[in-house]
Each structure stands twice: as structure tokens, then as C-alpha cells.
């Protein structure tokens, strides 16, 4: 072959690939976009599953992992939507199901009855199938003509590998051989779905078409009608009840009022960092609640789901900041900090999705003035605990973004900002947090766990406990009404 060669052997083609590779037929635009729509569909369904399963999943680490993975999937959905829109494709057909068997595949995982099947379906079937499809795209497409898709596939693979690593560790920790055996039949059904769909990308059993070739069909056997749904025979029903693992032994405990302590000018900043770590860790209830809004709100533009999921992930990160704050002080938080789920439980069971969003907006607007996130950052800075200051610095920045997300997706349904805030206030006032009846029912004693936590921290700090701080015993019983705006999570 007689080619011109590059100038002084510089990389040709902007480093995309060799000239010889760029001569390969690769995928036509039609073939490419057909595959891209399947990746888009897969990421969209994965986003839906990760989100929907956060609330009722008891294991804290999985809640956090699902929150992260929901966010990553939403970002890739956004990228692939945009790319499909660049491919001469209107109408885009992005809300259509590319193949009936793929729909069954994801419906089954969404409806998986327990943590074990869910984890297996996601990390042993769905994510590997998507990874294989993206790798195949990179191997088969022409990297010069299809460079924008190549770039998206490479980014997606990077994060898919992270997710798979998390998933492999989760399977290693949670799935016994007995579970593998019990789930075998169902996992085989998932395989059958993929076979019927011609693999996730629809290319199995197809002879690869050249550029001039005919259209790509879905192809594959057996026919979807022969796939018997196992768990997804009935339409999926979202479970709004938050659940926690055994490290949350007192989930109705509202015995320590963090805000009254935090805003008391007579109490020391160092001790206040404990209350802020508690407030952060307690934010595990925000993903639990936001998952319900996202899952139960249909027919919004995609940007709504993407932005709300970003916020959901930020709130999960805030919870993990609290976890790290306690770890840094060598405090065994499951024993010494009673992290409740009363906020997410009350909102998820008592309010409609739009009302929950209204409460979130109302609380977040209350965090913007002097008393809110800036104050927490200042306390962190004054405390001498650099980690607390760092966490509050980013928590504040995230909150500014959340306020914008609220303006973009909640506020615009109202005539003016005041109306939107008042509606949120009304919804929040309607929520019944039944402090006394939970105690009467024996669900909690609202035990004051503060003195023990404070003593443990003082041991770490090597200081004598301050009697005034040690004596703190304000609960959420009497003062809740006055502090309703700040006692919620956000
Ligand atoms: Fe937050
Ligand atoms: Fe927030």
C-alpha cells in the first residue's frame, strides 16, 4: 500500500487510530445509532433500578453504592441521548423499548425480591452485558468517522468497570454458594432474555453488515413470547418504606436535637462538630426520600431525572461525610449515634411526590441564609477539626447547586417563589412526626445517647468533658415545631 505517511512521523488522524484502521468499513450511521439506543435504554433502566431500590434496601453500603451508580447511569443516559440526537435521527425514539426481551430482562431485575437476587442480576448479568456491548462497539466501529461515540463508550466503560468492581465485592461478601444455587434458574432466565434480544446490543446472531449493507434487525431466538416472567408478572410496585441494617438499632429515636445544640451560641464549636457529623450521617434519609420522588414522578423531561439523581447522590455523599467524621474520631457510630429514618418514612408514607419535593425545597431555601450552610462551615472552621470544615465547605457548595435544581424543576410550576415556599411550608406542617406515640408503642425510648457520644469524643480529644455540654438533653419532642425548617434533612 502506498500511503503518504505523516509529517516527520507525527501521529496520524489526531491519534484516533491508524490510517489502515480508518479504512475499515465499521458501522453505518444506522447500525451505530441502533446500538447507541440500546446502550441508552440499558443505562436508563439501570438508573431506574438503582434508584427505585435505594429506599427499602436495608444495607447502608448498598444504599450508598446504588445512589452512586444511579448517578453514574443517569450521566451516561444524558450523554447517549445527546449523541443519538446528533445522528440524523429525528424523531429520536429514545423513549421506545428497543426489544421486548430486553424489557423483560430489566423488569425482572427491578422486581428481584431480595438483596441477593438484585445484586446478582445487576452486577453479574446487566452490567457485564452492557460492558461487552460497549467493548464490541469500540472493536467494530470506525474510530475516525464515529469518534464522538467512541469517546462516550470509553468514558462509560471506565465507570462501568468501577461499578463492576463494587458489584464483584458485594457478591463476594453477600452471596453464598447456596444463594447462587437458589438463584440459578432465575439467572438462566436473564440469560435467555439476552439471547432472545440478540445480546444487549442486538448484534448476536447477526452477520455483520458492511457499510453498504442492509438495515440491522433485532434478530435472535427464542422469541420473547416464550420467556416466562418470573418476578415481573405483575407491574412493579415501588416500596416506599425505608429499611436499615442492624447497625441502625433505634431508627425512631428522636432523642437528641442536633439543631438546638448547633445554634446555641454558648456551646463550644468542637462539640458541635459531633452534631454536624450526626446531621450529615442522618442524611442517609434524603436518598431514601428522593428516590421516592424520582421513582413516582412520571413523564418529566430527562433533565429532571438527571438533576434530581445528582442531588440524591450528593445527599448520599453527605451521609458518608458524617460516617468518615466519626471514623476519624475513632467513634463506633452504630453503637453511639442513633441514626433515625423518621423523616424519610414520614414523607414517603404521608405525602404525594410533589408534596415531598415541596418540603425538600422549603427546607433547602431555609439553608441558604446566614443560619444555614455558611454557619455550619464557620463552626467547622472554628472547631479546630479541619475535616469538619472541609466537609461543610463542600456541603455548602452542594447545597447551592441543590437550591438551583429546586428552582429549575420545582419552582417553575408555581406563579411565584413565595407561593412555592408557602406550599412547601404547608406540606411540611402536615407531616405527622409522632414522637410520643412511637414511645408509647415501644418503637423507641428516645434514649439520650449524646452524653456517651460526647464522652467517647473527649477520650479521643484527650480533654475532660465539659459538664454543661455533657448535660445536654433537648429532644425533638417540644422544640420541633419552632425548628421545623431546620430539623429536616437536606
Ligand atoms: Fe445534604
Ligand atoms: Fe441538599
Features:
mainly alpha, binds fe (ii) ion, 59% helix, 490 residues, globular
Give a short overview:
This protein is 59% helix and 0% strand. With 490 residues, it is mainly α.
Question: How does this model look, in words?
Answer:
- This protein is mainly α.
- Helices cover 59% and strands 0% of the residues.
- It contains 19 helices and no strands.
- It has helices at residues 29-52, 60-85, 100-110, 115-140, 147-174, 177-196, 258-262, 269-282, 285-296, 302-328, 333-336, 342-350, 353-366, 373-382, 386-409, 417-430, 435-440, 450-461, 467-470.
- The protein is globular and about 85 Å long.
- Bound molecules: fe (ii) ion (FE2) (2 copies).
- The site of one fe (ii) ion has 5 residues, from α10.
Shape: globular
Radius of gyration: 26 Å
How many beta strands in the DSSP annotation?
Answer: 0
**How many DSSP H or I helices?**
19
Helical content stands at 55-70%
* Uncertain regions spanning at least 5 consecutive residues: 207-224
Class from helix and strand fractions: mainly alpha
What distance separates the N and C termini?
Answer: 64 Å
> What does the average pLDDT come to?
92
Topology:
Layout lengths: L28 H24 L7 H26 L14 H11 L4 H26 L6 H28 L2 H20 L61 H5 L6 H14 L2 H12 L5 H27 L4 H4 L5 H9 L2 H14 L6 H10 L3 H24 L7 H14 L4 H6 L9 H12 L5 H4 L20
The structure holds fe (ii) ion (2 copies).
Amino acid at each position: 500500500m502506498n500511503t503518504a505517511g505523516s509529517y516527520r512521523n507525527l501521529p496520524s488522524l489526531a491519534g484516533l487510530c491508524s490510517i489502515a484502521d480508518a479504512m475499515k468499513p465499521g458501522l453505518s450511521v444506522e447500525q451505530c445509532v441502533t446500538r447507541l439506543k440500546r446502550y441508552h435504554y440499558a443505562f436508563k433502566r439501570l438508573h431506574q433500578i438503582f434508584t427505585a431500590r435505594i429506599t427499602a434496601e436495608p444495607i447502608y453500603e448498598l444504599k450508598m453504592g446504588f445512589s452512586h451508580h444511579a448517578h453514574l447511569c443517569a450521566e451516561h443516559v444524558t450523554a447517549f441521548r445527546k449523541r443519538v440526537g446528533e445522528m440524523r435521527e429525528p424523531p429520536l425514539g429514545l423513549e421506545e423499548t428497543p426489544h421486548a426481551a430486553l424489557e423483560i430482562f430489566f423488569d425482572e431485575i427491578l422486581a428481584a425480591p431480595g438483596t441477593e437476587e438484585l445484586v446478582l442480576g445487576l452486577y453479574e448479568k446487566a452490567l457485564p452485558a452492557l460492558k461487552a456491548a460497549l467493548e464490541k462497539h469500540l472493536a467494530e466501529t470506525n474510530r475516525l468517522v464515529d469518534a464522538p461515540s467512541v469517546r462516550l463508550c470509553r468514558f462509560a466503560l471506565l465507570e462501568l468497570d468501577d461499578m463492576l468492581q463494587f458489584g464483584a465485592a458485594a457478591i463476594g461478601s453477600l452471596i453464598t454458594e447456596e444463594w447462587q444455587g437458589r438463584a440459578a434458574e432465575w439467572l438462566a432466565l436473564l440469560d435467555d432474555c439476552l439471547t432472545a434480544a440478540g445480546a444487549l446490543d442486538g448484534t448476536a446472531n447477526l452477520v455483520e453488515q458492511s457499510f453498504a449493507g442492509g438495515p440491522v434487525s433485532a434478530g435472535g431466538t427464542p422469541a420473547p413470547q416464550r420467556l416466562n416472567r418470573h418476578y415481573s408478572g405483575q407491574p412493579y410496585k415501588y416500596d416506599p418504606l425505608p429499611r436499615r441494617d442492624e447497625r441502625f438499632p433505634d431508627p425512631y429515636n428522636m432523642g437528641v436535637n442536633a439543631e438546638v445544640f448547633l445554634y446555641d451560641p454558648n456551646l463550644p464549636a468542637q462539640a458541635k462538630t459531633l452534631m454536624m457529623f450526626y446531621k450529615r450521617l442522618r442524611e442517609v434519609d434524603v436518598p431514601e426520600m428522593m428516590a421516592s420522588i424520582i421513582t413516582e414522578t412520571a413523564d418529566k423531561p430527562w433533565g429532571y431525572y438527571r438533576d434530581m439523581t445528582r442531588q440524591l447522590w450528593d445527599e448520599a455523599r453527605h451521609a458518608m461525610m458524617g460516617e468518615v467524621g466519626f471514623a476519624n474520631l475513632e467513634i463506633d457510630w452504630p453503637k453511639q449515634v442513633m441514626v433515625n429514618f423518621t423523616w424519610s418514612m414520614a414523607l414517603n408514607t404521608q405525602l404525594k411526590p410533589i408534596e415531598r419535593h415541596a418540603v425538600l425545597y422549603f427546607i433547602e431555601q431555609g439553608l441558604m441564609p446566614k443560619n444555614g450552610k455558611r454557619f455550619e462551615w464557620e463552626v467547622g472552621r472554628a472547631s479546630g477539626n479541619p475535616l469538619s470544615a472541609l466537609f461543610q465547605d463542600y456541603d455548602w457548595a452542594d447545597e447551592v447547586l441543590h437550591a438551583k435544581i429546586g428552582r429549575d424543576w420545582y419552582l417553575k410550576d408555581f406563579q411565584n417563589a413565595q407561593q412555592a415556599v408557602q406550599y412547601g411550608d404547608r406540606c411540611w406542617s402536615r407531616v405527622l412526626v409522632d414522637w410520643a406515640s412511637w414511645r408509647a408503642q415501644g418503637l423507641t425510648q428516645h434514649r439520650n445517647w449524646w452524653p456517651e457520644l460526647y464522652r467517647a469524643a473527649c477520650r479521643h480529644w484527650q480533654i475532660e468533658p465539659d459538664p454543661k455540654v455533657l448535660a445536654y438533653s433537648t429532644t425533638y419532642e417540644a422544640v420541633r415545631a419552632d425548628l421545623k425548617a431546620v430539623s429536616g434533612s437536606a
